[in-house]
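Is it possible to get an amino acid sequence alongside its tokenized fold?
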Amino acid sequence: MLDEPTAGLDPPAARALLETAAELKRGGYTIVVATHDLDCFFPLADQVAVLAQGALRYSGPPDGLWKGARVLEDAGLEPPAYIRIGRMLMRQGGLDVLPAGAGDLLAKLDPLRLAYPGGGACPGAGNGERPAAACLSFTAGGAASDAITASDTDTDLADGSGSAKRQGGTVLRTLDPRVKWLAMALWSLVLLGMKSILPLALATVLVAVLLACGGITRKRAVWFYRPFLPMFLFLWLLSAFSWSGSDGAASFAFSPEGALTGGLAVLRLGLLVSLGFLFTETTSGGPLREGLEWAIAPLGRLGVRTRNWSLAVSVTLQFIPWILGKISALQLALASRGSRKRGLARWTPRQISLMAVPLLLQVIGMGDELSTAIEARGYDPSKPRTPWLVLSWRRKDTAALLLILLAAALLWWLSRSG
């Protein structure tokens, strides 16, 4: 029997402990572990018992915890990190099933990786691998998942038919981010100038083909577009129906011309949103940031520190998911105190007022920790920093650039001639 065996251990020691436990398990020994370190021991467990306030909340296989009610959350515990990440990716259409462990999660994420070859500016960057991802397999959680039998992993990989589909977007994912930035900017300007049906229809076909070739799953696309549909419908209704009144009489009428004009405007907006979706889905944060910094590099001649601006943009974007996670945690805390709300009731003025102060304090605290971390690393704003990766231009980037310019010129000509 082991009671909180990983408490106080550093990652190498925890990994050694987990490897010993896995070896004993293969030798036929039964190990009973009382722990809050779910990330380490869940991949090894055959049976799990959840105790809270002296009561048995659950007893059975680990998988049963994810299929039923929020047993762990109601007991004041958080699921392992690989389960939380798996749930998030399933909601976003990135995964079809929950991973069996940290190693299985990495295997499922590998086809999703937005690989960009680039130049080797830092270890792991040369082959498009993120340093954090490269180190993740050496953590204690990775050791526990490695202890799972290889047959389970092989089965998951053999059944990953979705992974083969995502490989179809390799060409788009490995293009130089500068090409994608140019395509995004140029096509957006061309789309904004379109007023007739023919060029918009051709642009719709072009964007649809790119989305299909981008290795984006249908579930992922549905998850992204669903929040926009009510807005698109509302904007179209505003254009399609007119409300007029005179001398105390009012009329509400449908306008075919307004419906057509509104439909084209909504389609144009949808195409702009689709370009942004395609851009972000096929470009990871590092190459995207380096491409942005390259685009604003001429401002450096005016004394603008472009590297600091790109760092600020990157940090700001990373704050958004962190804030959303804190909001979810605060809503869970309110629910545990008897204020359980669902749907739109979670966003009433009263609920927002209850979350505003603690969320503001957490954001201020996070900003203070971030500034301390930057100062501790000795960042000198007056000196250049080593880039995450070095952008590398190849022949296929030149070919893609020519196709982008040709398509933009064709769409612009059609929009002007129409």
